[in-house]
Each structure stands twice: as C-alpha cells, then as structure tokens.
C-alpha cells in the first residue's frame, strides 16, 4: 500500500510540474522576435534532452541488471575457492553474451522508435494532403506529429516509473522520477513554444499540453496496478524499461530533428524560391539553440549517481 501512495504522489507531482513548465511560454506575452528565440531554445531543449538524458537513461536501465550482477560477483569472489574457477569463466562468458544482446537492443529500439514516428507522420500526411493548401496541411500535421511523438515518449516514461514503483525500492523510484522530471519540464516548454510558433490557438495548445502532461502519470498508475508479480519478473527479464525508454528516445529524436528544427530554421517553408531570404538562424538564435542543447546535458551530469 505504501508503494501505491508513493506512485500516486509521484504521478501527481509529475502532472503538476509538467503542466506548470508548459504554461510558462503561454503565461508570458512574447513579441515576434522573442517568441522565435524561445522556440529556438525549446528546440534545443528537445534535442539536448533526447541525446543527453533519454538515450543514456535507457542504456543505463538496460545494463542495470548486469552491472548489479557484477557488484554481487565482486563481493562473492572473495569467498570463492580455487576449484570454482571454471564456473566463474562460464559465468563471464554468459555476461559477454548478454552484453552483445543488449547492444543489439539499443540500436533496434532507437531505430524502431524513429521509424514508428516516420510511419505515423506519413499516414497522417496522406489523410491531409487532399486539402487545397498542402503547406497548411503539412504544418497542421507537423503539430499533431510533434505532440503525438512527445505523448508516446511520456507514455514510455510512465511505464518506466510504474515498473520502478513495482520493485518496492524507494531509491529506484526517486531516481526514475528525477530523470523523468529533468526532461519532461524542458520538453513541455519546448512543445508549447513550438506550437505557439506554429500558430496554434492558445486553447488548443493547452489541450495538447494537458494530454502530454497526463500521459506519464496515467500510464505509470496503469502499469503499477496492471502488473502481477509474475509479469513484473518477466518484464525485468527482458529489460522492458530500458527498451521502452530507448524506443521513446527514437520517437523524440524524430520529432526534434524532422519537425521542430526545420520549422525553427525556416526550412519548413522553403519550398518557394522567394522564401530563401528567411532561411537560417541569427547568431543570437544559434546561441539560444546551443544553450538549449546544453541545459539538459548539464542537468543530467548533476543527476548522475
């Protein structure tokens, strides 16, 4: 029951924290230039978060069992006598085999996440391309894909937190919670600033933000309540948390690189020859983009344990 109370409190804190971070760009009135700068900063935050926080967290979650196993082995080897050398060698061989399997998981999960969003994007665009204004259809689709990609990612975060809560280890729960909040707050800020730049009405932006903010808490509760003891063990056996986080990192990378960055850089509207003048970023915008990329990196360095 204590676990249930802690997961409920963490979910509530996640919902409130994410929504408040996302409301900041809406609460402050920005001029056209300031809005562009905030959007560029948000794009940097999305890219930095994907590369510096989510991928390392996913890899760490994958390798956690093996790393813990090595710690146990190190403490046990002092008590092991010489005759057990052969058994140790076979155990090491199994570890090497596990490592190669996990390497494959990393690449496959990232690529599948990226391809999943690519397919969602294409399916979405095939429905809206029939309209008279393909440019408007493209930008509308871009908004939906961006939100969808971040919601898929937030859902994977929720599964990770729910799975962590089911381990009954408070330290694991708090580590996962801190890791999620470190990138959910910048992601919410980035999403809202991008949607504002894309010209979405404020009420609809709030709805997008609410869906994004709700995804992780709801999924964490569902995962926690839905997992039986045996399925919890099965999930930890196949490193489901790490795979889910890496899959969502792939979706995150797609959203950040294919939608948000081209829109911000003016590339999204460069189909016509006269729009070439608007291409590229000013020095201040480049600085904001780099700063946005570095903030999650600095936060993640501070969070490493």
Automatic annotation (TrEMBL):
Q: What main location does UniProt list?
A: membrane
**Bilayer-crossing regions:** 6-28, 35-55, 102-120, 174-196, 208-227, 239-261, 281-302
Note the InterPro entries from the entry: ZIP, ZIP9
Instruction: Tell me one Pfam family matched here.
Output: Zip
Query: Which keywords belong to this entry?
Result: Cell membrane, Cytoplasm, Glycoprotein, Golgi apparatus, Ion transport, Membrane, Methyltransferase, Mitochondrion, Nucleus, Transferase, Transmembrane, Transmembrane helix, Transport, Zinc, Zinc transport
Which GO CC annotations does the UniProt entry carry? Golgi apparatus; mitochondrion; nucleus; perinuclear region of cytoplasm; plasma membrane
Keyword Glycosyltransferase part of the UniProt annotation? no
The keyword Metal-binding is assigned to this record: no
Q: How does it sit in the membrane?
A: Multi-pass membrane protein
Entry's Gene Ontology molecular function annotations: methyltransferase activity; zinc ion transmembrane transporter activity
One GO term under biological process is:
methylation
Tell me the compartments it is located in: Cell membrane; Cytoplasm, Perinuclear region; Golgi apparatus, trans-Golgi network membrane; Mitochondrion
Family of this protein: Belongs to the ZIP transporter (TC 2.A.5) family.
This molecule's function is given as: Transports zinc ions across cell and organelle membranes into the cytoplasm and regulates intracellular zinc homeostasis. Participates in the zinc ions efflux out of the secretory compartments. Also functions as membrane androgen receptor that mediates, through a G protein, the non-classical androgen signaling pathway, characterized by the activation of MAPK3/MAPK1 (Erk1/2) and transcription factors CREB1 or ATF1.
Q: What is this protein called?
A: Zinc transporter ZIP9
Q: What is the lineage of its organism?
A: Eukaryota, Metazoa, Chordata, Craniata, Vertebrata
């Amino acid at each position: 029951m204590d676990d249930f109370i802690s997961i409920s409190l963490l979910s509530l804190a996640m919902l409130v924290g994410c929504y408040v971070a996302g409301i900041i760009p809406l609460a402050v009135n920005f001029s056209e230039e300031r809005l562009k700068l905030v959007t560029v900063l948000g794009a940097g935050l999305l890219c930095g978060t994907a590369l510096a926080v989510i991928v390392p967290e996913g890899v760490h979650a994958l390798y956690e069992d093996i790393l813990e196993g090595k710690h146990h082995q190190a403490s046990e080897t002092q008590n092991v006598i010489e005759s057990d050398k052969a058994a140790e060698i076979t155990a090491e061989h199994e570890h090497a085999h596990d490592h190669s399997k996990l390497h494959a998981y990393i690449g496959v999960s990232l690529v599948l996440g990226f391809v999943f969003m690519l397919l969602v994007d294409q399916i979405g665009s095939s429905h809206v391309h029939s309209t008279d204004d393909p440019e408007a259809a493209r930008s509308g689709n871009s908004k939906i894909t961006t939100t969808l990609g971040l919601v898929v990612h937030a859902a994977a975060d929720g599964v990770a937190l729910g799975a962590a809560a089911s381990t009954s280890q408070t330290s694991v729960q708090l580590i996962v919670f801190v890791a999620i909040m470190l990138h959910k707050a910048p992601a919410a800020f980035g999403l809202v600033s991008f949607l504002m730049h894309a010209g979405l009405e404020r009420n609809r932006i709030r709805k997008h933000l609410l869906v994004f903010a709700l995804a992780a808490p709801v999924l964490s509760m569902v995962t926690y309540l839905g997992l039986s003891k045996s399925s919890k063990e099965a999930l930890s056996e196949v490193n489901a948390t790490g795979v889910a986080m890496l899959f969502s990192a792939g979706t995150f990378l797609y959203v950040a690189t294919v939608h948000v960055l081209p829109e911000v850089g003016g590339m999204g509207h460069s189909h016509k020859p006269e729009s070439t003048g608007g291409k590229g970023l000013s020095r201040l915008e480049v600085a904001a983009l780099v700063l946005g990329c570095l903030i999650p990196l600095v936060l993640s360095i501070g969070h490493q344990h």
